[in-house]
Records
---
Amino acid sequence: MVSKEELAPHVEDVSRALGNDIVKKQKIDVEKELKEYIEVYRVKDLSTAKRSIVKKYGGDIGALRAGGGVLRTLAELKPNEPSVDFLCRILTLNPKEIEQDGVKKRIHYGILADQTASKSFTVWNEEAPFTKGDVVRVRNAYTREYNGEAQVSFGVRTTFEKAPPDALPAVAAARFGEPREFKVRDFRDGESNVSVEARILSLERREVTVGDQPKPVFSGLLADETGRAQYTMWHEFPIKPGDAVKISGAYIKGWKGIPRLTFDERSQVEKLERSKLPALKDLKGGNLLTIEEVASRGGAADVTLRGIIIDVKPGSGLVLRCPDCKRVVQKGVCRVHGQVKGTPDLRIKAAIDDGTGALLAVFGRELSEKLTGRKLEDYMRLVAELANPDAVRAEMMEKIIARPMEVTGNVTADDYGLMLIASSARMVEVDVQAEARAMLEELEAV
């Protein structure tokens, strides 16, 4: 059974194509005609039904709206659609001044929603045809792609019709209107409308090209008492390292399992003068987690793990790298640059187990030298003396296997499991007596 609300835009479309004179003179009940085609004749394509009715009464088939005037839900919208019709509630509305072809222009942007999703929108007009809270039937809007999602644009062809407030369930405002509060440890890929209170640990600026225009983008690390995360900022908010801020209206996009907070001019950034957040000095070190906790998150940024080195994998030791892309060269061939003269380097690929799980940790030259106590040049002489490249890996195994280690870095995830790219590492000494006391206390508690 098709509802009156669903049929309304189609009834209007057919009535316009027929013309008021035909409708009145022939006393056509367009809604009844459409229902008959759908429910009696079982016509599944509304466009076919509408063309048939217009043709039957001698109307102008060419006047029917492109795309059939079908009301879509916001969840159904795809990027780069030339014409879309939908019913929505305006959740936020903000003016903005831009410069176009050397001329300053006022536009509007905000968030709209229905019961299925929320979308950002832009009105390319001096005045917005609605206000915050309005329920609006939109026709002939179009979509563009923004960060992989459909963003709605209202142009000169777009028309608006205000609908009663109860035309959309209140859930549209309740679900999407207020940002949801998150702690850093709860960041997951795909979350939207995120609010978080955190301290900015670092901030770097670079320029990218969007269209033909250079655009500044900022990135770095932020943290709260539960963890640290990477962020990307597509607007120059007045913040600096050390600031405690509340970020609202952001979203989370993961890369190889590492969640990254992303926000732009549609988001709100508020400085917190009296924050409950820990001081900057207390947030400098990576959060200590277990491998099981990292696995449950699917990856993490700048975390610290403690475990035992249980294996040194093949590919460890003395390697040759392409001088251009730094990839490891196999038999003098780089898979990108072909035949090259490799540059000697040192690395360790070690499996670390902390009792809750295991992962692969990769250490570059500096950390490899620190952990083994030998320089690259020492290992190059060793290989030359023994004429055996595997001697380096063998010695590394003797020095670090079964040793407790504390390592910090980013943990990524793919089909092969977890991998940590180490930024710092150190061997740790275990207090055997303290460990024994803790074990006894745990056994007595049980």
Note: The mean pLDDT is 83.
---
Amino acid sequence: MKLLYQLSLLFYQWLIALVSPFNVKAKQFRDGRINIFNKIQAAMASNNAPVAWFHCASVGEFEQARPVMELFKLKKPDYKICLTFFSPSGYELRKNYAGADWIFYLPVDSATNAKRFVALVKPSIALFTKYEFWYFYLKTLHEQQIPIYSFSAIFREKQVFFKPYGAFYRSFLQYFDHIFVQDETSLQLLQSIGVNKVSVAGDTRFDRVAEICANKKDIPLVQKFKGESLCMVIGSSWPQDMEVLLPLMNNTTIQLKYIIAPHEIHASEITALMAQIGKKSVRFSEANENDIHQFDVLLIDNIGMLSSLYQYGEMAYVGGAFGKGLHNVLEPATFGMPVFFGPKYSKFNEAIQLIKVGGGFSIASSEALESMVKKMYNDELCRKQVSQISRDYVLQHTGGSKSIVAYLLRHTF
């Protein structure tokens, strides 16, 4: 299995090289790692402070890592933070994050790369977010007696760790000094395979979204767009989501306003979408305060506003669950509103729980969505009750970052 693991990484790099001339993200993945060790060496050359290394796969994991990083820095101000990403989606969006002293792409996992990276960064502690398990990095850190932690981790019975043929992958988990998991199911699964240095600390994204809500940025232009109307915020939408949403949006009997923040912003796609919308729509970049109140649909054609946009909604739709994967449902939930999303949410514990408590709603068709939205639109009491449920759900699950950092301070320093 170790050889298969190595071959799979080599194949992945070969595939990236093959498609990089035609794919922006593949090109970023490849180009971002050119001369990566020279970049790391130059950046770290004059450092004499202890280093805490945080690693994230992409932007979603960064949102989980951020409250832990920031609290860690508050408690250990003598430490510097080295943040790494595997994916271009995370690195390119957060490469200027001010809370880290250095931000790099993680070199692809191999014995040579791991030893070289650790030698250059010299971390005193390493923290991996959610699903990140890289054999050679973990092995190298362990051999050098550098404490290793995983947080916001979540495990499912179908994962390779719990299969009869998963011994090699189970060995990854033994390298961790402690694993902070999101739920009791993950705890029991790990204990069933002899991994006992584990505890439930929850999902640190709850801390992050609660912080976002508390420090939301006012957007006066959006407030003028909304006026006194009820509004649905559509976050991180894909074309598959819009196919379901458009019949609702074009329904003239429901006088909602809509804010759409697509997952990917391409001028041609926004133009095509506007042509399908039967109501007056405008791009944010072209809107002005004098007449924005006359429009029914506001399309966000920039990155970074979504988390604050949710404050202007009475309902939210979160994209991705008709395709590759559901995006962040906690952001709208923390602002207190019914949250709608597609049918592919089984790998997202927060969506499962939000449905269970009555704050989230999975819909599989335009008809189902329209029926639910009509209920919330016409029944103010019901809408407010659901909104309170969503808000309470988030607040009841905050505090994971504090418990994680408190453990680190007790056991590592």
Note: The chain has a mean pLDDT of 95.
---
Amino acid sequence: MPISFDPNPATVQGREEMHEIAVEHMRPWSREYDDREHEMPWEYVNPMWERATGRSGKGDSGPGDGMVTVCVQTEELCWGDAGLYLRTPSPLLGGSAVAAAGTPAQRERFLTPFREGKPKWGAMAITEAQAGSDAAAIETTAVFDEATGEWVLNGTKIFCTAGEGALEHEGGLVVVWATVDKSAGRAGIKSFVVTAGTPGITVVGCEKKLGIRASDTATLQLENCRIPADNLLGKAEVKKPGASPAGDKGFKGAMATFDASRPIVAAMAVGVGRAALDFVQEELGRQGVPIRYDAPPREQTAIERDVIEMEAELQAARLLTWRAAKMLDRGQRNNLEASMAKAKAGLAVTKITQKAVELLGPLGYSKKLLVEKWMRDAKINDIYEGTQQINQLIIARRILDYSSSVLR
């Protein structure tokens, strides 16, 4: 039976629609909202929300191609603008966590509001001052109050993407990682849903950043923040009388979020890299500089070799991304492949955008073009959702079949 590499019609249609949005509602505002950091870009948000609610339940993707379609669409939107993309009204990372670790009832309860009402956002709060790449070092606590049947959260979270948007708009949510037992290490880490309007959680500031400046990256303070018992993601179990209920998926369930989110971040990187590469190729074309793909390497110019290498890096990152996404669609474990896609795409987009600035010279470094912005936007893809070093460590562990205690 022949193998077809053609995307299904729904994926093609979605890509075309997202490209149209990128051209009409992102590129025209890209520079402005890079300068107006933290302001809500309603010129992009409103059309995206109208599209999302208008298509709710209509089945945007074909059978078995859900995550591949998401990655294809993400690439198109980040070709438009990565910072604006992160302002897309949707559950975002918070939704990924609910989908990965929540029960069917929790998914229905927390994600249904994102298909109705006004624009809203989801976020995930993991990072702390002393717990960046090592999520097991989290110190934010969750204590079960038996008298009220509530969880009480205390701690500070930093670098929370869309944290401000999630808490300041009705129906939004933040998934907070906290420990129910510090002595248990990773086993004590659970994830909890805090909805917008819940007393005890506040936005205490937003980061001024190098790139993706249109998005908000918030610091959140939790002070005796009380949430219902069933806001603990996963089916609660009580091991012994008097013990606090704990989610059955725990740390591993929470970490499974990244198996879905890392291919999306990789697709973001591919989109930014493609934006830079497309512009370089167009500019070379305008200047009458051809790229001779059929010429032997020894006869090619330095520019030709650079552009061809940029294309190869981009294509390798894209194919790794689609592979990880397709495995997720098939219900296969993709922990290794998700980290490979994220690591490769993070390196590739950094190289591609830096080379784009270099090839265009002083004009590439100037704010007259978006190329310098793409270089700034690119670097975050090598950092969040697990740094380059952490993803390479995960890859090594999976290939060598070593545990985290053996290979650190």
Note: Residues 57-64 have pLDDT under 50 and may be disordered.
